[in-house]
Design a protein that fits this description.
474 residues; globular; single chain
């Protein structure tokens, strides 16, 4: 009784989640620590040349992990491949510490930054693959909360170069320990199972849509351009404050207003903050804090949306999230750097005109980019595959066409026909329960029924019966 009187409802939900979903806590903590160590490395880099070495290492790490995972570890069994990125990052931390202690020459910093970028980028992909195997409704919450925690830790720990140098190996060591521990949790069935199937090859177009690629590219190019024009320092205090905003917004919406939270909110957050940052860049002088906060928040929201979408679609397709997340990360690195280099050029075009063109492009893309978390056909396939009776599957498809259901209504209809309730459909499609009820009401109207019982009776009368083994098992 006293417990209920002390804590507000949103904190109650957070505590309940932590108690029931230890795997979520591990995923958030491990991913956040890995990202924090990666961001702290920019404090050690200092010069642009060392930052370039770190980016080159990240690219190498992404490509190597995907290559080895699909070439040598299709069944998720290799402990060496699981632990190698973390061990490489730890070795790189050792190089940075020895340079700090003047044991090694400063020229070896480039090697250390390359190896550190390689290890942390590959570790990030590993964490995202684990995240993609959890429940759909937790994916964006895990990534958003972890990114917000990462920025908070960078603000706290990045006060001095000495603190950064000695904290980085500790963060990597803890993250690696949690990574191995989560693998053990999976093996002992204390966490959602890894993909049961092997890492099967799948068309990248099925996981990363061209609209998402263009959307991420425009946002990150815009951020790089604004950073160059305004002379921002990478991952400064205000940059981290901006990076915290989408994570805090996602956590607040998910726990404070769970029935109203979906991917539309995240897309709209990215749009509002990025446009605000571009507009403010035309009115303020160089290195203005507000411009950096808004532009960083917009880009961070875009990254969060892209990683979440890639993980969700991989989850729905029952395949690994490694290739999709690697593509998103490569896009972020390449387009941000392209924006920075473009801003350094002596362009004939007026910056205000360029900013207006980017705002128009972002507006058109945001209007056209589907806000839904996963492609409809994957949900449809999963619902159809839930029943082994092929004749029943064909009848469901025929019935949805006959009654004139829309694409989204067909998706909800298939899930209803497979026995899912409102809450389960909301979790599966990552939309609010009120939206599911609205779809269900329209479906009822097209079937001339008033409730779920009458809907089930119509299905039972129209559809062929379930096979005996399925009926007896239910």
């Amino acid at each position: 009784m006293g417990h209920e009187a002390i804590f507000p409802p949103w904190l109650e939900r957070l505590m309940d989640l932590a108690e029931r979903q230890w795997n979520v806590v591990v995923l958030v903590t491990g991913y956040a620590l890995c990202r924090c160590a990666s961001h702290l490395s920019f404090q050690c880099a200092g010069s642009s040349d060392l930052s370039t070495c770190a980016d080159a290492g990240k690219i190498a790490g992404l490509l190597l992990l995907v290559t080895f995972a699909y070439g040598l570890d299709r069944e998720h069994q290799s402990f060496k491949i699981l632990a190698a990125p973390g061990l490489i990052a730890l070795a790189a931390c050792g190089v940075l510490v020895l340079v700090r202690l003047s044991v090694l020459d400063a020229s070896t910093l480039a090697i250390g930054m390359f190896l550190f970028g390689l290890g942390t980028a590959a570790m990030m992909l590993q964490w995202l693959e684990f995240v993609s195997t959890t429940s759909l409704k937790f994916i964006v919450l895990i990534i958003g909360t972890a990114e917000g925690l990462n920025s908070l830790l960078v603000i706290i720990l990045g006060a001095s170069l000495e603190t950064v140098t000695y904290c980085m190996p500790l963060l990597i060591a803890i993250s690696l320990t949690l990574l191995v521990g989560y693998r053990r949790m999976v093996e002992e069935s204390h966490a959602p199972s890894l993909l049961v199937a092997q890492r099967v090859s799948i068309g990248l177009g099925s996981i990363v849509s061209w609209r998402l690629v263009v959307w991420v590219s425009i946002y990150c190019f815009s951020y790089g351009l604004v950073s160059s024009f305004m002379h921002f320092s990478k991952l400064s205090l205000f940059d981290n404050f901006g990076n915290m905003i989408p994570g805090a917004a996602i956590a607040g919406l998910a726990f404070g207003l769970p029935s109203r939270f979906d991917m539309r909110a995240l897309k709209n957050i990215a749009f509002v903050f990025m446009v605000a940052g571009l507009l403010l860049a035309g009115f303020f002088d160089n290195d203005n804090a507000w411009v950096q906060v808004f532009a960083s928040a917009g880009t961070a929201s875009c990254r969060l949306f892209a990683y979440s979408l890639a993980c969700m679609r991989a989850h729905a397709a029952r395949t690994s999230a490694l290739p999709a997340c690697a593509i998103v990360k490569l896009l972020i690195i390449a387009t941000t750097e392209t924006g920075i280099q473009t801003g350094l050029l002596d362009l004939a075009i007026d910056p205000g005109v360029l900013g207006a063109a980017i705002i128009l492009t972002i507006s058109l893309l945001s209007a056209g980019l589907s806000p839904f978390s996963i492609d409809e056909r994957y949900v449809l396939e999963r619902a159809v595959q839930s029943s082994p009776a092929s004749r029943r599957q064909e009848a469901l498809t025929s019935l949805s066409t006959e009654r004139g259901l829309s694409k989204r209504e067909t998706t909800v209809f298939m899930l209803m026909a497979s026995g899912c309730d409102i809450a389960a459909i909301s979790d599966e499609l990552f939309i609010s329960r009120s939206a599911v009820r609205a779809h269900a009401s329209r479906i009822y109207a097209k079937f001339a029924v008033h409730n779920r019982q009458e809907f089930n009776e119509v299905l039972d009368a129209y559809l062929p019966p379930l096979p005996e083994e399925e009926s007896s098992g239910s």
